[in-house]
Amino acid sequence: MKVMVVFGTRPEAIKMCPVIKELELHKEIKTLVCITGQHREMLQQVLDVFGVEPDYNLDIMEQRQTLFDVTTSIITKIKAVLEQEKPDIVLVHGDTTTTFATALSCFYLQIPVGHVEAGLRTGNLYSPYPEEFNRKCVSIIAALNFAPTELSRQNLIREGYAENSIYITGNTAIDALATTVDHLYRNRILDWAKGSRLILVTAHRRENLGAPLKSMLRAISRIIEEFPDTKAVYPVHLNPAVREVANEVLGRNERVQLIEPLNVLDFHNFMAQSYLILTDSGGIQEEAPSLGKPVLVMRDVTERPEGVAAGTLKIVGTTEENIYQETKRLLEDPIEHKRMSEAKNPYGDGHASQRIVDVVCGYLKEKDNVMDGGKLE
Ligand code: UD1
Ligand code: UDP
User: Fold this and answer.
1) Helix 352-373 crosses helix 10-23 at what angle (to 10 degrees)?
2) C-alpha span between 135 and 75 (Å, rounded)
3) Is the CB of residue 235 below 6 angstroms from any atom belonging to ligand 2?
4) From 10, 218, 237, 304, the catalytic residue
5) Cβ 23 vs Cβ 30: under 8 Å
């Protein structure tokens, strides 16, 4: 039985490496890892932390790549890999263009797809863009849907997907988190921030590039100016369109450190030691409730309402004034900060990978039996 895991970006890698580790415990399964290389350095950082060595690397990344570039390169290059290996199932994750293009390629070759982190929805096809479209398309194709929560399961049922194709597993981000956070962790940048309230920042979404990103970072600049007991650390995504704006708006502020992307082990520990987090990321919204860290989500909508219900996340939009006002409010209100800091975990018990692999094994065995049953004497 052959399982191929395909991913291409940092967050997919963080959430699929625990699944790969679990698959590798099953000797009856041949596990193959194919990376598209939609990300390069940021993906390698994760592979290094988890000690995963891909069997295939499509190496498609280009500077300032467009959605056309990513989609067409993957489809063109992955065909030969899928045709050569003929996996019994391909596992993809979430909502990136790697996920969509891989699922589409599998559909063309009639290879079953298992979708990890299935059923997240905002209901707005353009936010996040193009991720809402990507994940909806993968749902059409997937034979197995691994929904992290009951809510994501309900989203799939509402769209008419068969109940027996959907499994609630928890989110594999929580599996990863269990291996990274260490209360004795130290780092010179955290030493620099000691004695201040640390605001951890990330921002990269495609729909925010340009003016919205500038507004978001201006709000942070105003906050740092106004609150002398705060410092900000922003590990800047390698996208040049992000780096230019980050440098322009925050580059000269002495209480802001713009740093290279952190590896996941470092980043989780930075989260654990921060006072609050400002982000437009998806994955960080899942990790923060477990760590009990307040997150102001710089977006208009979220596909992670579980974190909002848990009290950890607050949607603050992308306008300068709103982000500034909401951050100011939180910094001035210790009771609200304490309320948002209560660690809750809507995303499972850290055993999502195990559940996913159990279902995959059952599916493959059943497929095997059907094939055997159909054999001519
Ligand atoms: C992608 C995903 C997004 C996910 C994000 C995680 C799509 C359309 N977008 O967006 O869903 O949230 O990854 O971070 O699938 N770059 C490098 N080195 C790297 C990574 C990126 O130089 O290791 C630069 C390149 O110039 C590249 C650009 O960043 O062209 C953008 O990368 P891309 O994957 O297209 O978009 P992301 O915003 O990273
Ligand atoms: N992350 C990381 N280093 C960083 C910033 C984020 O390892 O410098 C991790 C973070 O903990 C989370 C994931 O990357 O697991 C989120 O990735 P990103 O924000 O790039 O993508 P998204 O989740 O928005 O798709």
Assistant:
1) 60
2) 17
3) yes
4) 237
5) no
Are 207 and 129 a contacting pair, CB within 8 Å? yes
The reported pLDDT for the residue numbered 372 is: 65
Any catalytic annotation for residue 83? Answer: no
pLDDT of amino acid 349: 92
Q: What string of DSSP letters covers 129-162?
A: TTHHHHHHHHHHH-SEEEESSHHHHHHHHHTT--
Neighbour-count burial of 192, counting CB atoms closer than 10 A to its CB (0-12 exposed, 13-18 middle, 19+ buried): middle
Which atom of ligand 2 is the closest one to the Cα of 279?
A: 19
Could you list the mean pLDDT of each consecutive 10-residue stretch along the chain, which spans 377 residues? 98 98 96 98 97 98 98 98 98 98 98 98 96 98 98 98 98 91 94 98 96 97 98 98 98 97 97 97 95 96 95 97 98 97 90 98 90 56
Ligand nearest to C-alpha 264: 2
User: Which of the residues 12, 22, 88, 131 is marked catalytic?
Assistant: 131
Separation of CA 204 and ligand 2 centre (Å)? 10
Q: pTM above the 0.85 mark? A: yes
- For ligand 2, atom 9, name the residue with the nearest CA: 264
Ligand 2 mean position, distance from CA 281 (Å):
7
Contact 89, 364 (CB under 8 A): yes
Is the beta carbon of 8 within 6 A of some atom in ligand 2?
A: no
For the stretch 222-260, what's the b/e string if a residue is b when 16 or more beta carbons lie within 10 angstroms of its beta carbon? bbbeebeebbbbbbbbbbeebeebbeebbeeeebbbbee
Q: What is the DSSP letter of 275?
A: S
pLDDT of res. 371: 67
- Measured in Å, residue 180 CA sits from the centre of ligand 1 at 23
| Domains observed in the chain | 2-171+349-365 (3.40.50.2000), 186-342 (3.40.50.2000)
Which pLDDT does position 377 carry in this prediction? Answer: 45
Q: What is the pLDDT of residue 343?
A: 80
Q: Which residues pair with 269 in a beta bridge?
A: none
